[in-house]
Amino acid sequence: MTAEELEALARRHVAEVLNGPNLAAIQTLIHPGYRDHSGPAEGGPGLDSLHAFLDPWRAAFPDLRFAVEDCFSDGAARVAVRVVATGTHAGPFLGLAPTGRAIRVEGLAVYRCAAGQIVERWAHFDTLGLLRQLGAAPPLG
After folding, report:
1. Which of 20, 28, 42, 123 has the greatest number of beta carbons closer than 10 A?
2. pTM exceeding 0.85
């Protein structure tokens, strides 16, 4: 895949899967053996690992939106995306009761792609910053 094709695939994943969910897009964009290596979401192959990552976020932040800030590729099989997630804390998350607070969290995801589909994903978000926004961690200083 070209760098442009990889970047378009990652952007579609954010727009149609993370912000969707567009079930048809999930079937098209996600390889059947997909693995998500994003902390607690890491698990066996398939859509279960996608749901293990996304479902807790959606339950806690029903208005959750991801925006792509940067996207770049190696032009072979990998693409990286810097995203900003925003939403309102309306459900339990990481053991925290809903606060009603708005959040803005930056993250970085790296995708490995093959034959026009996402095969693996590694994502990291500013969890400490999120906990500070929710009042569960003290501010710096």
Report:
1. 123
2. yes
